[in-house]
């Protein structure tokens, strides 16, 4: 967008409460959705997978018919994939369009940096053969990192990598994930395990960067809009190292597909096709108990005080559970056995009946009777 765009009248005006109410619906949180967990992952774009218990709760709390273990089963059958993505962390992605995020992550070509070349003894010209060797090694099925190293280092060209694989090789594996050569399988005996993506019929590969960038921006605005340019940069720029210049170009290229939105005096954007539904949205009163590092706060970033007020930000960044009311984090929660402790951080009175209902829903998801108290 240009400076003149910023001074033009907005296409529509909504309150922050309306905007969050619309986003709650897009997140399958109000009303709670009924789609399978694989579709929930696709809707969210990415689900942080460093803690599988939190990841499963994040998707199950958005799917009324979910069952324990659905995310694990989806990974096993390939309806979701697991890869190193945003901020170098492990994320669940949809195989149909997750490649767009990996294309953005790979755009920086970090493996060609002098420090990488020196440390791993692999120059830019060596990577095509190295990638091919990795893909060939995984054709027989999943391998742990150590097992992959044992296969690769039988080749003279890669014998120098034996100490790297012995130490875990996580950093070396990441660009192989970004380029779609492999994904993560369920750990074997607690060890990082890798699998080929070539055998997954749902995997659509890594698209061209010029196609991937606009697709990723559209997907973000569909679920996390109305969003500012800073929001888009946080998610795709800081998160995937896409670069501000590239993002600005993609946003400019999407000019005719976007609608400007005045949200309590701030200029934000949604896809033009979503403008009518946003204009008709109503504020939500829904109370939701979400897991720590849920996409509700990770998508816009914890610095977005409209979603994560400063009073709760430190706890939220430390992976505390989220007490969300009308889209705003009003407190945190933590479970100790059958007790859910609620740490309320807002001047507005806590709606105890709504919390009681949500704690009961959490208990259903966790398959146990729960009660709550103020922390």
Features:
alpha+beta, 2 domains
How does this structure look, described?
By secondary structure, the protein is of the alpha+beta class. It has 2 domains: 1-283, no CATH class; 287-374, no CATH class. It has helices at 3-7, 16-26, 37-44, 52-60, 70-77, 99-106, 114-120, 127-137, 145-152, 162-166, 170-178, 209-224, 229-238, 244-253, 275-279, 295-298, 310-317, 352-366, and strands at 12-14, 47-48, 81-84, 90-93, 143-144, 183-184, 193-195, 258-263, 266-271, 287-290, 321-325, 328-336, 339-344, 371-374. The strands form 4 sheets. The protein has a 5-stranded mixed beta sheet with strand order 10-11-12-13-14. The chain has a 3-stranded mixed beta sheet with strand order 1-8-9. Helix 18 links the parallel strand 13 (339-344) and strand 14 (371-374). Helix 6 (99-106) packs across helix 12 (209-224). The termini are far apart.
Q: Quick one: biggest sheet?
A: 5 strands, mixed
Strand content: 15-25%
DSSP E strands, number: 14
Overall form? globular
Low confidence ranges: none
Summary, kept brief:
With 375 residues, this protein is an alpha+beta fold. The chain is built from 18 helices and 14 strands. The protein folds into two domains: 1-283, no CATH class; 287-374, no CATH class.
């Amino acid at each position: 967008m240009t400076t003149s765009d910023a001074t033009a009248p907005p296409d529509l005006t909504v309150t922050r409460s309306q905007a969050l109410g619309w986003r709650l619906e897009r997140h399958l949180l109000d009303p709670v959705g009924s789609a399978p967990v694989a579709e929930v992952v696709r809707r969210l774009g990415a689900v942080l997978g460093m803690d599988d218990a939190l990841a499963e709760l994040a998707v199950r709390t958005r799917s009324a018919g979910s069952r324990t273990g659905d995310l694990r089963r989806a990974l096993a059958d390939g309806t979701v994939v697991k890869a190193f993505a945003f901020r170098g962390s492990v994320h669940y992605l949809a195989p149909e369009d997750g490649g767009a995020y990996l294309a953005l992550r790979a755009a920086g070509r970090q493996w060609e940096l002098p420090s990488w070349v020196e440390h791993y003894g692999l120059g830019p010209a060596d990577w095509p053969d190295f990638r091919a060797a990795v893909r060939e090694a995984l054709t027989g099925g999943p391998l742990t990192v150590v097992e992959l190293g044992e296969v690769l280092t039988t080749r003279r060209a890669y014998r120098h990598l034996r100490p790297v694989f012995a130490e875990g090789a996580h950093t070396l594996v990441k660009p192989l994930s970004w380029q779609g050569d492999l994904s993560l399988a369920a750990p074997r005996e607690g060890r990082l395990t890798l699998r080929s993506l070539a055998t997954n019929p749902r995997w659509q590969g890594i698209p061209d960067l010029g196609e991937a960038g606009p697709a990723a921006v559209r997907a973000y605005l569909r679920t996390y809009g109305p969003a500012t340019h800073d929001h888009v940069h946080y998610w795709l720029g800081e998160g995937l190292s896409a670069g501000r210049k590239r993002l600005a170009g993609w946003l400019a290229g999407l000019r005719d597909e976007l609608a400007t939105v005045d949200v309590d005096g701030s200029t934000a954007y949604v896809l033009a096709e979503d403008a009518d539904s946003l204009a008709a949205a109503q504020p939500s009163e829904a109370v939701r108990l979400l897991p720590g590092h849920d996409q509700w706060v990770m998508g816009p970033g914890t610095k977005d005080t409209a979603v994560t007020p400063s009073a709760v930000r430190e706890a939220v960044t430390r992976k505390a559970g989220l007490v969300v009311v009308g889209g705003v984090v009003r407190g945190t929660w933590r479970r100790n056995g059958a007790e859910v402790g609620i740490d309320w951080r807002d001047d507005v009175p806590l709606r105890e009946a709504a919390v009681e209902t949500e704690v009961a829903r959490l208990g259903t998801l966790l398959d146990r009777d729960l009660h709550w108290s103020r922390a």
